[in-house]
Design goal:
Radius of gyration: 22 Å
Strand content: under 5%
Helix content: over 70%
Distance between the termini: 27 Å
Largest sheet: none
Number of helices: 13
Shape: globular
Structural class: mainly alpha
Length: 324
Amino acid sequence: MEEEHKTESEEREEKPEKRKNAFLEFLTNVVRGAAIGVAFIIPGFSGGSVAAILGIYERLVGAIADIFKSFKKSIVFLLPILLGMLLGIAAFILPIQWGLKRFPIPTVTLFVGLAIGGIPSVTDKMKGGKVSWKHVLAGMLPLIAAAGLCWIPHGVEVDLFGLNFGGYLLLILIGIVGSCALVVPGISGSMLLLIFGYYNPIVSLLTNHLLKGDQVGVCILVLLCLAVGIVVGFFGISVLMKFLLKKFPRGTHFAILGFIVGSIPAVYASAAGDAGLTWGTLPANPWYWAVTVLLLAVGMTISYLLVYFARKKTKQSEPDPNRN
């Protein structure tokens, strides 16, 4: 009886601890979602890259792909990430747009530092056995594709307030393309929106109209069409990525690394192009470049610390082989 009473007592003590851990996990996923949302704002960066750097890419893809099979479990994981994405976009869209216009190189360098510092979270999953030519090819092709995006000319900007029925259907397709790019690490959804001529109009719609209460009905209709496309694309590409990660895990992580590395020159080219900078017009002020280097170091340090603590947590959760 005492043993039974003790077990019940232990269970009662464990419940608050479980709730505390669940709450901490929820907050952590909100922060992760905010980081993914911020990546969507910056042309050249990918939310998938951030998810891979944060070590939740496989879980994210699996939760989206299995949403109909394990609805409750998937929603519990995805909801705080989605909430964080919305908060991240709402909180940072204006300051990041300001930074990209006034100080484009230092602004993107902070995020390049975050990407570089988080690369070990991907390379950890590439270990094991020899590196074959297939692995090299799996890494090089995505690298070239991601870097090559910045050389594609941007399309004519679309008037989102003068769309006909076909224009709204096209928005759904644009949402599918954008979401696929968001899920695939290294392929930037915002970069693709720039190429198709939708990025600046969407940012303007949010900042100059919706947030100011102007033409709210049109704004909501545009965002609703994009949301439909994003949901469809999210699910479709997540099913594919889950299959690739299960069937070809090492080769897929080589591809993810290639996408991330290839996105680095793309983000610089995009930021410099939008700001009208060339090699001849780069700022000569040494403090400008000192701050740029400092932000690179800050970004690398922050993301590497995240990788370090994730490794430590994983190691602690692994069973001790010396214990009976």
